[in-house]
Amino acid sequence: TPTITIHGDTLTSSAPSGNQWYLNGSLIPGATNQTYIAQGWGTFKVVVKDSIGFCTASSANFVGISEVSKNGIGYTIYPNPAHGNLTLVLQSNSTDAISIEMTDIVGKIVYNKKNLSFVGRFETSVDLVNLRKGVYTFTISNSKGNATKKVVVY
After folding, report:
1. Can you give the chain as a three-state secondary structure string?
2. Phi and psi for 40 in degrees, rounded to 5?
3. Euclidean distance between CA atoms 71 and 94, whole angstroms
4. Neighbouring-strand partners of residue 11
5. What is the pLDDT of residues 8-25, one digit of tens each?
6. Alpha carbon distance 4, 65 (integer Å)
7. pTM above 0.85?
8. Among residues 14, 73, 86, 74, which one has the least CA distance to residue 45?
């Protein structure tokens, strides 16, 4: 069974050959290499056939990254709008320290994580239960710059 790893916007199958990439359950024409550069948000999987073409195996579904920021960090924040909890998924191919802040409309920090250092995928749940309804801003920073994303809490 193949597995998928991600670095930035590039998905890589653990199988060196026989790959066919799918997005949201539909075959991606021509996407048969070991790597695939994601063009946006979606649920990806890879199906691998053996060299004879008889045996196939499918990876687990992988929720792709919605945006890749100028600072090289891939990120997804969902659902948006949100109520209760939201999920933040980061992808990085560098051990450069990453900081995350969520601020309210007046700039008050309501959530933060500092000095995260990882290669690959980082996922966390953010509790919104005690926040007022409104628009909040996530800022994802590293030494290369900042990326911001607005989130609506209802």
Report:
1. CCCEEEECCEEEECCCCCEEEEECCEECCCCCCCEEECCCCCEEEEEEECCCCCCEEECCCEECCCEECCCCCEEEEEEEEEECEEEEEEEECCCCCEEEEEECCCCCEEEEEEEECCCEEEEEEEECCCCCCEEEEEEEEECCEEEEEEEEEC
2. 165, -160
3. 11
4. 6, 36
5. 568 899 999 999 999 878
6. 13
7. no
8. 14
